[in-house]
Amino acid sequence: MTRRRRRRSRRQTRVRVRRILLTGLVVVSLLLTTGGWVAFRGWQARAHLLNAAGLARELSSQVVGGDAGRAQRTLAALQEQAGAARGATGDPGWWVAQRAPYAGDDLTAVRQIAVAVDDLARLAFPTLLRIDLASLVPRQGNLDLARLRAVSAEVSAADRAVRETDARLRRVPSGRLVGQVRDALDGLRTELDRLAGLTAAADQGARLLPPLLGADGPRRYLLVSQNPAELRSTGGMFGAYAVLSAENGRIRLAEQGTSTGLGRFDPPLRVSQEMRALWSDLPGTFPADVNLSPDFPAAAALYREMVRRKTGTTVDGVLAVDPVALSYLLGVIGPVTVPGRPALAASTAVRTLLSDSYRTLGVQAQDDYFAKAAAAVFTEFFTKTADPRELLTVFNRSVTERRILFWSARPEEQRVLGNSRLTGTLPETDTVPTVGVFLNDGSGAKLGYYLRFSATLTVGDCQSDGRRELRLRVTVHSTAPKSGLDESVTGLALSGDPYTARTFVSVYTPTGGTVLGGRLDGRDTAMGSGTDRRRQVTVANVEVKPGRTRTLDVSLLTGTTASGTPELVLTPTVTPWTTQVATAPSCEQ
Question: Running DSSP on this structure, what letter comes out for residue 422?
Answer without folding.
Answer: G
